């Protein structure tokens, strides 16, 4: 199992937002996490990457406890996050955005990461020097996912990848996420209810008020 | 207007700009990391000025007969290096404090107040404990001589300050554009949280940037101390001017901050030498401030930012 979280309580300033959340994601699996605004999707992903502190419970990556690790250490250990709203570095070029995703890699392996990113999203190879803030929404989403993939993560966290994109672009993004999962990466996608891509998901979890709703799990 | 004064104004103005330009460089660097204005650099500049002066003039011993004697503890070159290193150490200490997990997430305004507190604490403690004596004027690490540029003689000290500032800005521009740490600094300036998600070591990088900017502020203070008789009071004015100059570049651009310093230096020199006729000291300050304000607005327009440094929404 790549990701295991059990009885996870986490939140801001000691105030819990997640209440005893447990979930597992295996290698090669795409798990969709559905929930309304404020349900706790974003907090869960930020807890896994390490910017929201764990109050109780644990997170394990390939069996190793990472609950107290810094975000940098978690990224180096194999977690990548493509955040809500893309959050690309608008004033940096496409290539610089991607290289930022490889911060934890030794210099020699950064170039491999770029090659991998351009294989996943060939259109980005033609945009290397373009400021990322001037890319289209779809291209910015590609940069966000490719950036998260730069460090060869074992676990890819993707937050609302379809937000603000045309349906045809969303299909392409999900096809790429499927491709990434098929290469052995565990993928956890957080989405709004109306944006769910059931065909691309192996399992669907529903989160509400900071808790995974047990009777609403679905498996493809 | 006396047009024959123009070459002199330009040459001398550039050397004045060099003294004004170092603090804005430090302010821009730390703003990129913390999004707060580095008032603390004024304190570090005072500290650097006093450490350097103390080392090259010796301690004040209260003996009036001793006044004017050279009691140098060490030479000017090692002294300025020690002042820079001490400034870096203070910068690292302050950076470690404000980048710590207890402080890093405080609101920007709170951190700005902490920076002002840093200015007051470091400046006052330095003034209280580090009292240079001996010579009335702090000697320059670049000697007393001068260099003729055209018809204008410039002191080696001011010329060196100009060369150091240009080299510093060029080196920083190269560092920021060519290294991964520089890339991370620019990314942090764009989006702190997203850079952390990418694995950037925010505390380490932030503390390092505070260390580097502390070294630059101390260098600026030491260079200023060797150019004027009463550096401590002057540095506070230098800090205020440095902040205005840093705002020219939106607190983010080193080249624009340098341009602001050049404009300021040349205009101030023009006013002082009487290019625009006889202008009072107050009139000079008003003219200089208005000119900088105009430059800030023009630079913001060119950079497509609002006056208050917020990015304009893209159409």
Account of the protein in words:
The complex is a heterodimer of chains A (220) and B (315). By secondary structure, chain A is α/β, with parallel strands linked by helices. Chain A has helices spanning 41-49, 71-77, 94-100, 107-120, 137-149, 167-182, and strands at residues 3-12, 15-25, 30-34, 54-61, 64-65, 79-82, 155-159, 186-191, 203-208, 211-212, 218-219. In chain A, strands 3, 6, 7, 8, 9, 10 and 11 form a seven-stranded mixed sheet that branches. In chain A, strand 9 (203-208) and strand 10 form a beta hairpin. Chain B is mostly helical and 315 residues long. Chain B has a single domain (3-314), classed as ABC transporter involved in vitamin B12 uptake, BtuC (Orthogonal Bundle). Chain B has eleven helices and two strands, in the order H-H-H-H-E-E-H-H-H-H-H-H-H. Chain B has helices spanning 6-34, 40-57, 76-98, 108-129, 156-178, 180-190, 192-197, 202-225, 231-248, 254-272, 281-302, and strands at residues 146-149, 152-155. In chain B, helix 1 runs antiparallel to helix 10 (254-272) and helix 10 packs antiparallel against helix 11. Residues 306-315 of chain B have low confidence and may be disordered. Classes of the chains: A alpha/beta (220), B mainly alpha (315).
């Amino acid at each position: 199992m790549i990701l295991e979280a059990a009885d996870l309580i986490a939140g801001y300033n000691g105030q819990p937002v997640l209440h005893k959340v447990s979930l597992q994601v295996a290698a090669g699996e795409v798990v969709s996490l559905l929930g309304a605004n404020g349900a706790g999707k974003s907090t869960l992903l930020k807890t896994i990457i390490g910017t929201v502190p764990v109050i109780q419970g644990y997170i394990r990556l390939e069996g190793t406890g990472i609950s107290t690790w810094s975000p940098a250490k978690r990224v180096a250990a194999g977690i990548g996050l493509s955040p809500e709203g893309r959050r690309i570095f608008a004033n940096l070029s496409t290539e610089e955005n991607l290289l930022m995703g490889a911060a934890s890699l030794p210099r020699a392996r950064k170039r491999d990461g770029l090659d991998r990113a351009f294989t996943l999203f060939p259109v980005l190879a033609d945009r290397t020097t373009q400021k990322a803030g001037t890319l289209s929404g779809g291209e910015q989403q590609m940069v966000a996912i490719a950036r998260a993939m730069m460090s060869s993560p074992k676990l890819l966290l993707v937050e609302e990848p379809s937000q603000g994109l045309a349906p045809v672009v969303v299909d392409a993004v999900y096809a790429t996420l499927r491709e990434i999962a098929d290469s052995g990466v565990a993928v956890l996608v957080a989405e709004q209810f109306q944006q769910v891509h059931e065909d691309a998901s192996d399992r669907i979890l529903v989160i509400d008020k900071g808790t995974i709703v047990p009777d609403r799990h679905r498996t493809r | 207007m006396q047009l024959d004064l123009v070459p002199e104004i330009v040459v001398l103005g550039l050397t004045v700009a060099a003294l004004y330009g170092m603090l804005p460089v430090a302010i821009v660097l730390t703003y990129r990391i913390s999004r707060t204005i580095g008032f603390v650099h004024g304190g570090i500049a005072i500290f650097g000025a006093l450490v350097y002066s103390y080392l090259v003039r010796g301690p004040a011993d209260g003996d009036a007969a001793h006044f004017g004697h050279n009691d140098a503890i060490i030479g000017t070159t090692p002294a300025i290096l020690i002042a820079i290193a001490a400034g870096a150490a203070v910068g690292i200490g302050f950076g470690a404090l404000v980048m710590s997990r207890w402080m890093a997430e405080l609101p920007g305004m709170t951190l700005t107040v902490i920076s002002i507190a840093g200015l007051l604490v470091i400046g006052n403690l330095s003034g209280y404990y580090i009292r240079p004596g001996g010579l009335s004027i702090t000697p320059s690490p670049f000697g007393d001589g001068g260099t003729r540029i055209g018809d204008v003689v410039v002191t080696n000290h001011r010329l060196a300050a100009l060369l150091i500032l240009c080299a510093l800005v060029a080196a920083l521009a190269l560092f920021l554009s060519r290294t991964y740490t520089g890339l991370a600094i620019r990314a942090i300036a764009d989006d702190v949280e997203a850079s952390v998600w990418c694995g950037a070591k925010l505390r380490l990088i932030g503390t390092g940037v505070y260390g580097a900017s502390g070294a630059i502020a101390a260098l600026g203070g030491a260079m200023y101390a060797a150019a004027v008789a009463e550096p401590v009071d002057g540095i506070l004015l230098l800090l205020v001017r440095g902040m205005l100059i840093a705002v020219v570049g939106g607190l983010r651009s080193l080249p624009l901050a340098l341009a602001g310093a050049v404009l300021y230096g040349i205009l101030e020199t023009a006013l002082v030498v009487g290019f625009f006729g006889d202008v009072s000291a107050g009139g000079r300050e008003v003219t200089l401030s208005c000119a900088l304000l105009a430059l800030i607005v023009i630079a913001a327009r060119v950079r497509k930012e609002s006056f208050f440094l917020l990015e304009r929404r893209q159409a």
